Amino acid sequence: MRWVLLAAIVARMIVACMIVFAPGVAAAEPPGATLFKRCSFCHDVGPDARNKAGPQLNGLDGRKAGSVAGFSYSAANKAAGFVFNEASFTAYIKDPKAKIPGTKKAFAGVASEDDAHALWDYLKPFGADGMSK
After folding, report:
1. Is the separation of the CB atoms in 44 and 55 below 8 Å?
2. Which of 6, 52, 101, 126 counts the highest number of beta carbons within 10 A?
């Protein structure tokens, strides 16, 4: 009887491990992380972030627009004069060319208010070092 009980316990553990570690089955990502995949062609974030076609986005909360070292910004972006926070980011990401006329950013914008806030919620915790605050 003990062997049957032990076999049943082991079988349940194996099934549980198969569910947790099944290939292709990932934990649900926050909406901002999923949305950021579209941005990741031009932008990087995290401990190994680097400038690409766009600047890396570590430490975005409280950062002055056009100020990442080593990135070649347009004159309009350098002179934008605003600091990123939730309000300025969501306004910018919805229509970058309207927020900074003359920017070289080719992105048309995020149409959804919810998506803009989800992106901010994803990016805000990354400190200047790329680690979550």
Report:
1. no
2. 126
For 83, the 3-state DSSP assignment is strand
In angstroms, rounded to a whole number, what is the distance separating the alpha carbons of residues 82 and 68?
14
Tokens read off for 122: 């994803």
Res 75: pLDDT: 95
- Residue corresponding to tokens 């914008």: 109
Q: How far apart are CA 55 and CA 38, in angstroms?
A: 15
CA angle 119, 94, 31 (to 5 degrees): 25
Return averaged pLDDT per consecutive 10 residues of the chain, 133 residues in all.
53 48 59 94 96 97 96 95 96 94 90 96 96 87
| Alpha-carbon torsion, ordered 117, 121, 123, 124, to 10 deg | 110
Domains of the chain: 29-123 (1.10.760.10)
**84 burial via Cβ count (<10 Å: 0-12, 13-18, 19+):** buried
Query: And the tokens for 114?
Result: 């919810």
- Residue 85 parent element (H or E): none
